């Protein structure tokens, strides 16, 4: 029996002084604190003697920068998987995450008709499906070892809810997926057996950018 662990790593804090909901917009890099978070995760995994044989990241800059120290620590080449990208969002580029009161404006009403899907962006089902596929491919390719997949808050949360057999519709305020957190999914052969959540950079979270869409 091969025991395999796939670590879903959310990227670190992003430099975003204007509070933009940046979504898939290119060019958003890690802040200085975000860089420290990325190195803290690499140290955390190394200190615990993890058998990490692959690091794969979303194509977005913040995910690539978070993945780089982990890949360097374990001396593996950083790979990219488009399935790990941030959720599509029609509010991308706005400051609604920082000032949600803007949602009362009539121009946004057409996007809010079904919050359970959600109607303003990529469906929860589609996110869970692509994330599960990425995890399953990593599990099969690196069976018996550990893999780090670097993604974004909502896709990671969708994967977790899916593995745990919970409803995908949820209250965003209740997501357990902090910056630079690890949602670690363990399999015996192809059977999901455990999920463990940790915050290696927890002491760096106080005062970190709270704007969602990361």
From TrEMBL:
<dbReference type="InterPro" id="IPR029033">
    <property type="entry name" value="His_PPase_superfam"/>
</dbReference>
<dbReference type="InterPro" id="IPR050275">
    <property type="entry name" value="PGM_Phosphatase"/>
</dbReference>
<dbReference type="InterPro" id="IPR013078">
    <property type="entry name" value="His_Pase_superF_clade-1"/>
</dbReference>
<dbReference type="Pfam" id="PF00300">
    <property type="entry name" value="His_Phos_1"/>
</dbReference>
<protein>
    <submittedName>
        <fullName>Broad specificity phosphatase PhoE</fullName>
    </submittedName>
</protein>
